[in-house]
Give the backbone structure.
Amino acid sequence: MSRRCVVLALIAAGCGSNWTIGQNDELIIDCLDERLYFVDVDGDGWGDPNQGGVLQCEPLGDVTATNQRDCDDSDVQVTGRLGSLCPGDLVEGEDDALVGAAVAGEGEFIWLYGSSAAVSYQEARDACSKWAEHPYPANDNPQYGLATFDPSTGSYNDIQQAILEALVDSEGSGTFAAWVGVLWEGDLETGGWAWEDDSSDGLIEDIGFCTDEAPRPEDFFPNMYIDDPDHREIILEELERMRLALVLTDAGDWCLGLPDAASTDSGGPYELTRAHILCERPPGDPAAYEPVDATGADEAT
Ligand SMILES: [Ca+2]
Ligand SMILES: [Ca+2]
């Protein structure tokens, strides 16, 4: 009997059954779920992509991860690559930077700064969407993207503000502005600001606006006049792409305003290169993700 046949016979016989091993047969006791495991130094469940996998029956030592998708295996706050990009790949310029990352509560956040290229709201949203892609399992992991603040995932003041302040502190900056998902709803005259993800509009009032009166869409274009028909048409065309930024002022307060509000008392003119990017996604379950193959392509499940 071959080695394969003996192993199969052991499986088929089950407990309490009688079976016979021939005199020259080799008895091999093998595990049934041997698989590739990868080194996980920081213990976040995601394996180091720079080290090869080891065939094991179970996790051993620090060879415990079932994939090698960790974007940084020395930082427990930077987790795995779910979609097409790691956080550090979202910024490309020489002076661009991943400022910080945090996993807390039901959210995972990354905080980026692009200094060498214009970072508009649209570019920020596209970048965050790439990071937040969940190729599988699609039904269990909804994609987020540009950060918004959903009260169902915890108190804004207790959790998310603490995360933001820790990240800002890590950069050593007293004033700060980042795109978040607050958009204008309704027409130019009677509309108002609302959270893009339908989070409670009451949160906007909790945070407060940076100026005495809420910004208006026309404030994004300080050199245009809303009463001019041509200017009005341009503002209307841009309306769906306008978002407020979350601003940390010199006084250490958070408010909602235009990105450049961090640099002036009253909120200055719209400045494309000013804003940072705050992205958010639900944490992925590393056990649900397969290894990335040698070519870098995701394996299908
Ligand atoms: Ca890891
Ligand atoms: Ca990590």
User: Anything to note?
Assistant: The chain has five helices and eleven strands. Confidence is low (pLDDT under 50) at residues 1-17. The pocket of calcium ion (ligand 1) is lined by residues 40, 42, 44, 46, 70, 73 (CB under 6 Å). The two ends are 35 Å apart (CA to CA).
